[in-house]
C-alpha cells in the first residue's frame, strides 16, 4: 500500500493510445504506398481559445500520422446554413475521408443537426444516427470514440469483460448508451452482462455496488464514491466536467482505496478517445477506397 492508501492498479490510457496510434500510422503509410493519402478534415466555428487549441493539437497529430488535414474556420457569427455548406463540400469531396466538427459550437448553432448533414461514412466521432444504428445492429462503421476507447483500454490492461457484470452510470448519447451496446456485443473483449443506471433509478448504488466493472458516464463531479464501489472492482472514469480548463471527474479519487483497478484522474479514457478518432479516420479511408 502506498502512503496515500491507494491499492488499486492504475489503468493508464497513454500506452493504449500509443499502440493504437502506431497501428494507425502503419495503416496510413500502407495507404500512401498505394497512392491514397487519407484525409481528415477539421471544422472550427468561432474563436474560442480552448477549441482552437484542441483543433491545433489534432491537426498536428494528424500530420504526424501522415494524414492530410484540410481545415475550415468559420466566424463565430456563422449560420447553420454556413456550417451545413462546409459539410456538404466535404461530403462531396472524394479526397476527404473523415470530418471532425470541433465541439462545442457557438450558441446559435445546433451541433446535432449539423452532424446529421454529415455523410455518416465520414463521421469520425461515430455519433451520426446511422452509425448509432450500425452499432446497435453490429454492422461495420465508425464507432463512437470514447466507448471504443474504453473497450480497448480494458483489453490492453487484460481486464476480462466477457461474462462479467458491467454497470454504466449514465445513458448519454456520447458515452453511456453506446458503451452499453458495445460491451454487450458478442466478441471476446465485450460479451458482458451490462446494466445502465441513470436519474430514473433512484437507488443506483444498489447496482453499482454489485458491478465487477463500473463505468462512470454521468458528467457529475465526484458522483462515484467509495461506498458505491464493490471492493476489488474495476472502475473506469469516463464522465468529466470542465470548469474553465479544470477537469472535474465523476470518480472521486478515494475510490482507488476500494477498487482493484482504476483509471487515473488524468490520462485514462481521454487519450484513448483521441486515438479512436484517428482509427476511425483510417478505417473511413480504407472503406471508401476499398484498400484494406
Ligand atoms: N473522457 C472523455 O474523453 C469523454 C468523451 C466524451 C464524453 N465524456 C464525458 O462523458 C460524460 C457523459 O456524456 P454523455 O454525452 O454521454 O452524457 P449526457 O448526455 O451528459 O448524460 C449524462 C447521463 O448521466 C446521468 N446522470 C446525470 N446525473 C445523474 C445522477 N445524479 N444520478 C444518476 N444518473 C445521472 C443522466 O441521466 P438521465 O438520462 O436520467 O438524465 C444521463 O443519462 C460527460 O461528462 C462527458 O464530458 C468524456
TrEMBL record:
Binding of NADP(+), residues: 170-172, 240
Tetrahydrofolate dehydrogenase/cyclohydrolase NAD(P)-binding domain mapped to chain residues: 144-288
Task of the protein: Catalyzes the oxidation of 5,10-methylenetetrahydrofolate to 5,10-methenyltetrahydrofolate and then the hydrolysis of 5,10-methenyltetrahydrofolate to 10-formyltetrahydrofolate.
Family the UniProt entry places it in: Belongs to the tetrahydrofolate dehydrogenase/cyclohydrolase family.
Enzyme Commission number(s) of this protein: 1.5.1.5, 3.5.4.9
Organism: Micromonospora siamensis
Keyword Oxidoreductase: yes
A GO CC term attached to the entry: cytosol
GO terms of biological process kind: L-histidine biosynthetic process; methionine biosynthetic process; purine nucleotide biosynthetic process; tetrahydrofolate interconversion
Record protein name field: Bifunctional protein FolD
Transmembrane intervals: none
Pathway: One-carbon metabolism; tetrahydrofolate interconversion
Domain annotation Tetrahydrofolate dehydrogenase/cyclohydrolase catalytic: ranges: 11-125
GO MF terms held by the record: methenyltetrahydrofolate cyclohydrolase activity; methylenetetrahydrofolate dehydrogenase (NADP+) activity
Amino acid at each position: 500500500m502506498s502512503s496515500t492508501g491507494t491499492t488499486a492498479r492504475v489503468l493508464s490510457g497513454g500506452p493504449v493510445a500509443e499502440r493504437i496510434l502506431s497501428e494507425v500510422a502503419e495503416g496510413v503509410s500502407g495507404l500512401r504506398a498505394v497512392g491514397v493519402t487519407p484525409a481528415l478534415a477539421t471544422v472550427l466555428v468561432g474563436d474560442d481559445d480552448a477549441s482552437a487549441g484542441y483543433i491545433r493539437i489534432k491537426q498536428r497529430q494528424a500530420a504526424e500520422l501522415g494524414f492530410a488535414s484540410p481545415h475550415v474556420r468559420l466566424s463565430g457569427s456563422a449560420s447553420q446554413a454556413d456550417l451545413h455548406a462546409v459539410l456538404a463540400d466535404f461530403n462531396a469531396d472524394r479526397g476527404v475521408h473523415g470530418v471532425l466538427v470541433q465541439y462545442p459550437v457557438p450558441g446559435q448553432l445546433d451541433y446535432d443537426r449539423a452532424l446529421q448533414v454529415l455523410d455518416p461514412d465520414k463521421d469520425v466521432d461515430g455519433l451520426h444516427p446511422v452509425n448509432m444504428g450500425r452499432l446497435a445492429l453490429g454492422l461495420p462503421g465508425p464507432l463512437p470514440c470514447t466507448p471504443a476507447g474504453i473497450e480497448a483500454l480494458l483489453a490492453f490492461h487484460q481486464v476480462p469483460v466477457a461474462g462479467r457484470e458491467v454497470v454504466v452510470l449514465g445513458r448519454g448519447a456520447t458515452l453511456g448508451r453506446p458503451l452499453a451496446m458495445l460491451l454487450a456485443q458478442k466478441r471476446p473483449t465485450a460479451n458482458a452482462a451490462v446494466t445502465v443506471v441513470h436519474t430514473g433509478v433512484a437507488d443506483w448504488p444498489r447496482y453499482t455496488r454489485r458491478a465487477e466493472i463500473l463505468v462512470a458516464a454521468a458528467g457529475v463531479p465526484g458522483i462515484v464514491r467509495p461506498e458505491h464501489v464493490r471492493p476489488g472492482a474495476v472502475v473506469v472514469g469516463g464522465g468529466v466536467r470542465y470548469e474553465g480548463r479544470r477537469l472535474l471527474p465523476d470518480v472521486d479519487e478515494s475510490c482507488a482505496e476500494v477498487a482493484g483497478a482504476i483509471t487515473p484522474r488524468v490520462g485514462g479514457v481521454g487519450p484513448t478517445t483521441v486515438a479512436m478518432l484517428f482509427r476511425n479516420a483510417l478505417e473511413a479511408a480504407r472503406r471508401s477506397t476499398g484498400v484494406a
